[in-house]
Structure formats: C-alpha cells, structure tokens
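Page 37, continued from 36.
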C-alpha cells in the first residue's frame, strides 16, 4: 500500500497543484476542504497518512485549530504537518510552529520548495 499524504485547503485549485507535486513523488493523495474534514479522514486513515499539508485560512476549522486538534491526539504525535499558507509574517510562523506544525511553506511556492521541505522532514529522499 502506498503511503498517503493529506492535503487540507479550501481552494480546490491549490489542492490540485499540491496533489500533482505529491503524486509525482509517489504518494497517494487524500484531500480535505477544511480542518474538520481532515480530522475525519485522519480518524479513518490514521495508520497510513505519512504527512499533512495544511492551509491556514479555511472556513469551519482553520489550519491552526486543525494543527492543535491533531497534536492533542496521541496517535498523531509523530505525524509531520506542514503549513502551506499566505500568512507571511514571522509572528504567524512562530504561532504555527508553536502549535505543533513541523514546517512552513509560504504561497506562492515552487515544486522545488515543497520537495526541499519534505526532504528536510525526511519524508522523501
């Protein structure tokens, strides 16, 4: 079974862009439009999800609340989470990392930027 990556973003276009990059690295892609949908997917697929890429600004449950909810569940203690967002202030980055995000990618991004972050997290070689 292939390893799965969960992409969480309210923008369908952004999910498609990230999915193309991630699928190109050999992962199966799961998608959610907000944090609540993502939590439901994680609850069902938790043993196979190897990485989460999450937007910050989303309706229903934003990325920060999602990260906090994931980190509150011991099953996901080691699950890498990367915030992929337009939030560019250093203070926002610190908030996300303090909440439990492992890395931070600012939009707009390149394929190389995403791949570099995944290498840093040792998710890909």
């Amino acid at each position: 079974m292939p390893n799965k990556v969960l992409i969480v973003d309210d923008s369908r276009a952004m999910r498609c862009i990230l999915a193309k990059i991630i699928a190109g690295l050999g992962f199966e892609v799961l998608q959610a439009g907000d944090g609540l949908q993502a939590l439901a997917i994680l609850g069902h697929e938790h043993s196979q999800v190897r990485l989460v890429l999450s937007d910050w600004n989303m309706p229903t449950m934003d990325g920060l609340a999602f990260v906090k909810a994931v980190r509150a569940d011991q099953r996901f203690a080691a699950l890498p989470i990367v915030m992929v967002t337009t939030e560019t202030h250093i203070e926002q980055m610190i908030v996300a990392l303090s909440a439990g995000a492992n890395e931070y990618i600012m939009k707009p991004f390149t394929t190389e930027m995403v791949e570099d972050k995944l290498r840093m997290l040792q998710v890909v070689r």
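The chain has one domain: 4-120. Flag for discussion at group meeting. The chain has five helices and five strands.
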